Q: What sequence folds into this?
């Protein structure tokens, strides 16, 4: 069974188009400077409507996670993380941490992460995060 994928709406289209191009797009309020996610046509801080879309760095840190052990129809029985990351620009995002062991030993809070996009369909790529490779 395939994963249920999001359907772009007029409010979220810029985000999904960015993901397809390998860009993590956030919005920023021109009035108060707040960067925010998820997409919406007004600022969650000051309700201002003078907002712009910008491409984020794709860098984040691990804020919180759980390891899900329940089988999922699309990925099978492997445990997988359901995480909340803090983007370098400030907003938090729910995602999965991939390309690392799905264990508490490997998933350290505040660990540096970078975005990686998973090509799920012709229209949708999902943003996941993986550990930043240390130089
Ligand atoms: Zn604002």
A:
């Amino acid at each position: 069974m395939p994963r249920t994928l999001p359907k772009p709406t007029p409010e979220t289209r810029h985000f999904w188009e960015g993901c397809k191009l390998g860009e993590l797009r956030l919005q920023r309020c021109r009035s108060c400077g707040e960067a925010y996610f998820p997409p919406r046509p007004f600022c969650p801080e000051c309700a201002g409507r003078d907002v712009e879309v910008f491409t984020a760095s794709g860098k984040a840190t691990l804020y919180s996670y759980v390891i899900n052990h329940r089988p999922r129809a699309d990925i099978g029985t492997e445990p997988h993380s359901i995480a909340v990351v803090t983007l370098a620009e400030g907003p938090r995002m729910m995602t999965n941490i991939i390309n690392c062991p799905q264990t508490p030993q490997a998933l350290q809070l505040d660990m540096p992460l970078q975005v990686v996009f998973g090509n799920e369909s012709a229209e949708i790529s999902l943003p996941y995060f993986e550990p930043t490779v240390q130089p």
About this structure: The chain has one domain: 13-131.
